[in-house]
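Quick check before the chapter quiz. The format below is the same one you will see on the exam, so make sure you can read both the input and the output lines.
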Amino acid sequence: MRFTWLLAAACWTMAAQPARSDTVILASGGKISGDLQESAGDLDAPQRIVSSYGVVELASEQIVEIEREPPELEQYRERASRAAATIVDQWSLVKWCRENGLYDEANRHCEQIVKLDPDHEQARKLLGFRKRNGEWSQREDYMQSRGFIRYQGRWRTHQQVQLMEEKRLIKAAQVAWYVRLKRWRESLGTPHERENQIDFSQLRDPMAMHGLMTLLGREDNLKLQRLYIETLGNLDRNAALSFLLNHSVYQNNPDHREMCMIEVLKHRHPQMIERYARFLTSYDNNLVNRAADCLAALEYPSAVLPLANALRTRVIMREFRKGANGQVFEKNAIYHYSRFPVSQRFDIVGPTPSYRMRTVDDVLESSQNAHAIAWVENPHVYSALRNLTGGGDFGYNAASWKAWHTQRQVSATPVIQARREN
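Here is the expected output.
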């Protein structure tokens, strides 16, 4: 009898300990729990999930959300493995879990306490039970009375469920488009090409954006690259236009920058001046000059002011030294995406996000090394100013370019003369 009780207690203790896992929410609506092993540096690589059922590989576009396991769970598992199947130990775990934000785990141990003592008031109350007419009401009834619904294993508000369901439907639509686009690309030059045909000239669905970008990043054919970029420019979504605007500056391949700029100009708007002007303060001098080319292409004279401020900018000088073997290498090198080798493939990822809008001061503040700083003239900024002013030339004198802009504004303002009645 004693052996049977100990065996049951051991089984209960093992069941109460959740295996270490991440939760992957799928576009299909399902979810997988296990140890997620992501592929560093390759966004297109499949995600490997090691679960109790084996190893599962999922394409990144099939994943809606990844719920990472909090670090406190490792401590929780250690504590739970030592806890006995007694009310005292289980209640101690409940308090520790709540102090560390592990409310689901706390509820799990409250449920175990209620099994040991069905009238344990504190555990009952934490589980949402209320005593009415001498009986404890069900937690589900209580949670539902407060407006919560059970969704994907947790109690959530209607608003949360609505947002999560909308997100799932969006991801499912994106996956469907990606599958369709991928099938079309793979069928080119095969007998199945006709049945997978897509009319890109009429494609406006924003749900196709992710699939188009994925194909663009894997494409070597220049003609197809142009087709994907043109289609992105036609989509009914500001995110696609923002992607093209950024990459008309970021891409190291000038052909790719030009393709993006052609699409940006189809949506030409004065607000784009502010977007491109943000690049004029970059620590990366190449990005400053590329942004100036884009501002010149927009042909808005109001861009003269931000361009004048960028005629001369500070740069972090490159320093080199010889090693013991006589080989020359750069000392205290700073990450510059614009110095990466030109690729025939479109890099849909672009610069590391943390460096995209950094100024020289931002880089110096975060660097632990001393760097030499110099002022340099930006020839593309100067050229853009000349183009926007119809051939005006004030050299690298920022004040003169600003004065030209001020005078132009004054000249364009109509003069209203008051008429005196006799």
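If your answer matched, good. The radius of gyration is 31 Å.
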